[in-house]
Design goal:
It is globular and about 45 Å long. It contains four helices and seven strands. The longest helix has 17 residues. Helix 1 packs parallel to helix 2. The termini are far apart. The protein has one domain: Transcription Regulator spoIIAA (2-Layer Sandwich). Strands 1-2-3-4-5-6-7 form a seven-stranded mixed sheet, with helices on both faces. By secondary structure, the chain is of the alpha/beta class.
Length: about 150
């Protein structure tokens, strides 16, 4: 896997076939992380990418209060990372202010099952989450939550 840093708000990850598997974008006005996943991503790469998100946000002083995770184009199950994500990564994120997650539902069947498992675990961690059929719907919902939470006019 190769990580390409574009600027202080964006980075991308590519697999060994030089296919883009991940794009991260940060919107400072909303303290919003937007993550787009596509193709097949092995569990070890998913964990490594989430670790890069935390490192990138810390280095660039980017508090993340909300996120959009677009997994519409992901292939295969990612349920092997759900427990790590919800037991280790997300509790630390919540401790540092994370509150709202919007997820664009995947089309692929096994990815849908993994998403359902992750959403069930999310409520135990202490953040509000919803899932949507489109990026536009997810963006509208999460930015409305963040406007209210951050008191943005």
């Amino acid at each position: 896997m190769e990580i390409i840093y574009e600027d202080e708000y964006n980075f991308r990850a590519y697999n060994e076939l030089d296919q883009e598997i991940f794009h991260y974008r940060y919107e400072p006005s909303y303290k919003l992380a937007i993550q787009t996943w596509q193709n097949y991503v092995p569990d070890a790469d998913i964990i490594a990418i989430y670790q890069k998100i935390a490192q990138f946000a810390f280095q660039n002083q980017q508090p993340i209060i909300g996120s959009i995770t677009d997994i519409l184009g992901i292939d295969g199950s990612f349920d092997g990372t759900n427990e790590w994500l919800m037991r280790e990564y997300m509790p630390i994120s919540v401790k540092y202010g994370f509150r709202f997650a919007a997820t664009v539902q995947p089309l692929e069947f096994y990815a849908q099952l993994a998403l359902e498992e992750a959403l069930g675990m999310a409520h135990e961690v202490g953040f509000t989450t919803q899932y949507f059929e489109s990026l536009d719907e997810a963006y509208q919902w999460v930015t409305e939550q963040l406007k209210n939470y951050l008191s943005i006019a």
